[in-house]
Amino acid sequence: MKNDATFAYRRSAGHSATPVKRIVILYEQLIKDLSRAVAAMEKNDIQGRSHEVDHALVVLARLQGTLNEAEGGEVSRNLDHFYHLLRSSLLTAQIRHIPEMLNKQIRNLVLLREAWVEVDRVETERTEKDGAEGNGTRENLPLTAGAQRPQPGNAPAATDEPRPSAQWSG
To answer: Does 167 map to a domain?
Structure first.
């Protein structure tokens, strides 16, 4: 029953969330999936590990599907590259039973999630300011990483050590 309530809450939050907040929610889900996969690895729970990694791959595909190179430019290309490397790393960790490889990817994902949280914070402040001045609403803002909004910087390579969480431009 708790899982049903949690699912309903997260689904509701996702439907009412901004596009950037939806990305944050996907990162959070991916981090949870991988954390549970590590726990399953440590218990030698092959079925649990496989289930969590499989779900993480579905979430990763969803994240990759949000990319828009026309609006996101280099950031979009960097994230696409990171997602490809991450997918490869997840499959390798799953096949070879390497929990530390998953932990490393969790650390990378936490850094990127933090960058997207910052993007959401800046957009929210901008929307509130624009709304107070009568200049528009959040709906007027670009829906993907674009020229005038702060963006997560270069994505950490899935095989590299984590890098700083964001490089802001604007």
So the answer is: no
